[in-house]
Automatic annotation (TrEMBL):
Residue stretches making up the NADPH-dependent FMN reductase-like domain: 12-120
Organism, as annotated: Neomoorella glycerini
Key words of the record: Flavoprotein, FMN
Keyword Acyltransferase in record: no
PANTHER family tied to this protein: IRON-SULFUR FLAVOPROTEIN (PTHR43278:SF2), NAD(P)H-DEPENDENT FMN-CONTAINING OXIDOREDUCTASE YWQN-RELATED (PTHR43278)
InterPro entries: Flavoprotein-like_sf, FMN_Rdtase-like_dom, ISF_SsuE-like
Gene Ontology terms for molecular function: oxidoreductase activity
Name the record gives this protein: NADPH-dependent FMN reductase
Top-level taxon of the source organism: Bacteria
Amino acid sequence: MKFKEEEKGLDVIGLVGSPRKKGNTDLLVDQVLAGVATAGLRVQKFYLNDLRIHPCQYCNYCRKHYSCRQEDDMALLYTAIEQCRGIVVGTPTFYGDITAQTKIFIDRCYRYVEVVRHPDGRNSFPSRLPDRRLGMMVGVTGSFGPETFNKQVEVIGLLFNDLNVGFADKVLYAGTDYRPVKENQAILTLAYAKGVEFGKRILNGIFA
């Protein structure tokens, strides 16, 4: 996958953390992005499983250099993140948590967070990215209940903090083992409607 010259300056990027194309997660991300596009915003979807992304080595190079020393396809996503105004992150549930593909991506975003130690011993974690963005999460789970999403939402929230992203909304769907997304028009319609609202907020500069 390439970040085409004519696609630079994209408004919203969708990140699919599932290895299954046209599966439950992918379909919901598609619906969100289709809704976003109605606002006239430019969108692009990335399949994390198709990209060569190495795990974070915790070498702390990024703490001093504000960049990552590893050379892989994460450079493509760094460019997309820094240029976009909105991010949609989608992941299915593997072993009650986000997928490995999603986790590797999140770990590699460590370069964007500043760790500030205050005189009273308290730490804060502001983003190094100056421009505010808006974010949405898409999550699905097969046989687990909706409580499974609690820790997933927390982790995506930490990611959004580091990317200077306002956590705008979520599309969460449990029970895909029994009723896949493609068989549930209601969740497809909901994802599209949330995408429309998401696009409107970005267009109007509402990033809270």
